[in-house]
Amino acid sequence: MHSFESHIRNVPDFPKAGIIFKDVSPLLQERFGEVIEAMSKTINWEEIDYVVGIESRGFILGAAMATLKGKGFIPVRKKGKLPPPVISESYALEYGTDTLEMLINRQPGRVVLVDDVLATGGTLKAVMNLCGRNNFEVKAMALLINLTFLNKFTEEGHPVHSVLNY
Question: What one-character-per-residue DSSP string does 72-98 give?
Fold first, then answer.
């Protein structure tokens, strides 16, 4: 096992009181290549056409995974950041809602979703819905950290590949 935990900084009361933020920046600075290999290891890459990276750290991790495995990369962005035509999916946050967008896709493809942290699962569910409406079949999800105490995420039987679980 890798000793990634020692490179993750706990930041109390960020972004708001009562939350302990897991800052992965020191880990990415010191062990980036190992992180990408660990996140890529358990995916069946023969059944993946594209890596879908979720704004914003999912861009960093997902683009590196796509490069490592010779796959295309698709960004999912916050509302208004991609040029049209796009499809949108709104989802609930702790306070209010947010919207994610993806460029409209005409050709079916098989994807792995990539993000840094899975907390309650709202973002991941929204991206799964976007993919489903956009001719992409979600085959796997790769997360650096799964905060399992905040979610019981086994959406539609898709495996969640996480390097670290808390």
Answer: EEEEEEETTSSPSSEEEEEEE-SSSEE
